[in-house]
Design goal:
Order of helices and strands: EHHHHHEH
Strand content: under 5%
Structural class: mainly alpha
Strand order of the largest sheet: 1-2
Number of strands: 2
Number of helices: 6
């Protein structure tokens, strides 16, 4: 299916840290490639965040990794990937979402400014992605695995419903993007004006 996924660039910012944590800490380094984000996810899920700044970049790394997977669906669709490839991709996404929730839960009660708000908003974000996967993308795996001209009317109808649901997801996504600056200010760290190159992360991940 070659319709637009209405993809919008995320306004995530790179780390412009004012902290004094060890240079080898994955949550305290500038993240600019897939390996950096994956290392931050591992550190975050292992309980490596020790302050609000590191907590934020751990959550951000989780969100970026999941978002890369969501955006990759378009490439899978364009190449008519097999139903099995779609299934593995979606199952992986759902595991990542569960891991993100579990990781944030272990930090509950730390008392970092606006931590509860960031956690609640991130849960809302990952739940919206999970709903896209379960309610639309999984049922669309079969039609997405074949050429457009073989789609049935019901497939097009479901895809149109998916696009509407994706619009609703983008509203949550926009609130997450906006809130990062509020969280940074509350926790006394700064974000640079550079944004994460999501296209480069997708290209890197798809090449693996």
């Amino acid at each position: 299916m070659k319709k637009s996924f209405l993809l919008l660039p995320l306004g995530f910012a790179f780390l412009a840290s004012c902290g004094n944590q060890p240079d080898n800490d994955a949550l305290n380094q500038i993240m600019d490639d897939k390996e950096d984000f994956e290392a931050a996810v591992v550190s975050f899920e292992d309980g490596g965040a020790t302050n609000g700044e590191e907590y934020f970049f751990g959550v951000q790394a989780e969100v970026v990794d999941i978002d890369v997977m969501l955006r990759e669906v378009e490439s899978f669709d364009e190449t008519d990937a097999s139903k099995e490839e779609f299934a593995i991709h979606y199952d992986t996404m759902l595991v990542m979402i569960d891991d993100c929730k579990k990781a944030m839960k272990q930090y509950e009660g730390k008392g970092w400014p606006k931590q509860e708000q960031l956690q609640a908003l991130t849960v809302e974000w990952v739940d919206a992605v999970a709903a896209l996967v379960n309610d639309y993308l999984k049922p669309l795996a079969a039609p997405m695995s074949i050429p457009d001209d073989q789609w049935k009317d019901k497939d097009f109808e479901l895809y149109d419903e998916y696009l509407l649901a994706y619009e609703a997801y983008l509203e949550i996504d926009s609130r997450w993007v906006d809130f990062q600056y509020e969280f940074a200010t509350a926790n006394n760290f700064q974000l640079s004006d550079e944004t994460i190159d999501m296209d480069a992360l997708i290209e890197e991940d798809m090449a693996q």
